[in-house]
């Protein structure tokens, strides 16, 4: 899958632009705050119908405007074309179209345009809470497994309803709690089994990529941690119901799952240096790409946003060698340093374009 053309209207600091992309590497060069990341985020939005950075759609609409629109023309690996658009207004519902047909549900669109984004905010995969790591799993698995996405949506709806009951000042009706618990138990089986399969397949690739990027003999490990693997969720709900009524929210279920991330036997969050933590995250994201590539009929698009910051020269060169290999399709990369971009391009010998970004304006730069 590759993005041939993208039209952006009123997306963050970008007023209006039409961009034609190279089939292999597209570089965006500019200072911090110029709008480089916003371009990649617009491409991300086309795949997931939400920003990879902003939590609410109201924050993606350009200041002073009331609506936004993104339109993309894609070419599949079999040379078929796919036209997609996503738009929305302040206070209104977003409108999603693929090949001229409206998508009534997000699940009808997510997975059509496989994509992996690597960004500075990914540091929270190591430093942040468990919700960041669950979100990572959900984003990847949902792109190739529609059953997982549907189960996740149903589980979250039941979870929200159950939490509303648990927050009531009066005792929540047990029969209603049991109804939502049954729904959550049923959907959790699909969620947990899919996550386990995902982690088991990804771990060997992750270990190999960490060694390749880091270039050293550090021992890293990654494992899936869920109480649902060891205990019956229905029994957990029954035993803990009154405790949950006291705190006002659900304490058990796949919405509490996490990763155990270790470096030389210790939590990387506590023991890892800045470079080691970033290498851990990069290996994790590239492993996701490899996993998605094996699951999908389409080669995913790869977005690399300012990935070289805070890395030593050796790690930078290892990443450049990795992304310049034949295992990757179309790549979009941002940087403030043209030297990094030129080094990637010199290694790839592939079709490429360089764009200059200044205060939301984008134009072709000299090669």
Give structural notes:
With 367 residues, this protein is α/β, with parallel strands linked by helices. 39% of the residues are buried. The model has no long low-confidence stretch (mean pLDDT 89). The two termini are 25 Å apart. The longest helix has 41 residues, at 174-214. It is globular. The chain has a six-stranded antiparallel sheet, covered by helices on one side. A six-stranded mixed sheet has the order 8-12-13-3-14-15, with helices on both faces. The chain has ten helices and 15 strands.
Summary keywords:
367 residues; 6-stranded mixed sheet; 10 helices; 43% helix
Question: Gist?
Answer:
The chain is of the alpha/beta class and 367 residues long.
Low-pLDDT runs of 5+ residues are: none
The order of strands across the largest sheet is: 2-1-4-5-6-7
Helix/strand order = EEEHEEEEEHHHHEHEEHHEHEHEE
Assembly context of the chains: single chain
Mean pLDDT: 89
Helix run count: 10
Cα-to-Cα separation, first versus last residue = 25 Å
The main β sheet shows up as:
6 strands, antiparallel
What is the overall silhouette? globular
Query: Helix fraction?
Result: 40-55%
CA-based gyration radius = 22 Å
Q: Into which percentage range does the β-strand content fall?
A: 15-25%
How many strand units?
15
List the helices and strands and how they pair.
Layout: E1 2-11, E2 14-20, E3 25-29, H1 36-48, E4 67-75, E5 81-89, E6 95-98, E7 101-102, E8 115-118, H2 124-127, H3 130-144, H4 146-166, H5 174-214, E9 220-225, H6 233-247, E10 258-263, E11 266-267, H7 268-271, H8 274-295, E12 301-305, H9 313-323, E13 331-335, H10 338-348, E14 352-358, E15 361-364
Parallel strand pairs: 3-13, 3-14, 8-12, 12-13
Antiparallel strand pairs: 1-2, 1-4, 4-5, 5-6, 6-7, 9-10, 10-11, 14-15
């Amino acid at each position: 899958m590759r993005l041939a053309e993208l039209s952006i209207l009123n997306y963050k600091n970008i007023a209006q632009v039409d961009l034609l992309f190279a089939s292999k590497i597209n570089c965006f060069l500019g200072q911090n705050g110029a709008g480089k990341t916003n371009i990649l985020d617009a491409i991300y939005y086309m795949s997931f119908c939400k920003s990879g950075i902003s939590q609410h759609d109201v924050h993606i609409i350009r200041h002073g405007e009331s609506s936004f629109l993104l339109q993309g023309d894609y070419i599949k690996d079999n040379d078929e074309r796919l036209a997609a658009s996503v738009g929305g207004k302040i206070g209104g519902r977003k409108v999603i179209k693929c090949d001229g047909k409206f998508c009534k549900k997000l699940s009808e669109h997510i997975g059509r345009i496989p994509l992996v984004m690597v960004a500075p905010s990914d540091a929270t995969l190591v430093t942040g809470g468990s919700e960041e790591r669950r979100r990572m799993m959900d984003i990847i698995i949902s792109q190739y497994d529609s059953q997982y996405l549907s189960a996740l949506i149903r589980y979250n709806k039941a979870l929200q309803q159950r939490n509303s009951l648990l927050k009531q000042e009066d005792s929540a009706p047990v029969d209603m709690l049991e109804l939502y618990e049954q729904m959550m138990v049923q959907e959790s089986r699909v969620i947990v089994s899919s996550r386990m399969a995902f982690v088991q397949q990804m771990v060997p690739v992750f270990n190999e990529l960490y060694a390749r990027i880091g270039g050293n003999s550090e021992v890293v490990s990654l494992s899936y941690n869920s109480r649902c693997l060891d205990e019956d969720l229905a029994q957990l709900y029954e035993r803990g119901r009154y405790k949950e009524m006291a705190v006002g929210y659900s304490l058990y279920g796949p919405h509490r799952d996490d990763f155990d991330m270790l470096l030389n036997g210790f939590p990387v969050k506590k023991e890892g240096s800045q470079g080691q933590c970033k290498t851990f995250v990069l290996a994790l994201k590239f492993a996701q790409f490899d996993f998605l590539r094996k699951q999908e009929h389409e080669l995913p698009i790869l977005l690399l946003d300012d990935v070289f910051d805070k890395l030593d020269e050796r790690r930078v060169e290892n990443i450049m060698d990795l992304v310049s290999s034949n295992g990757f399709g179309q790549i979009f990369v941002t940087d403030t340093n043209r030297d990094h971009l030129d080094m990637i391009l010199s290694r790839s010998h592939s079709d490429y374009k360089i764009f200059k970004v200044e205060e939301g304006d984008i134009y072709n730069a000299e090669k």
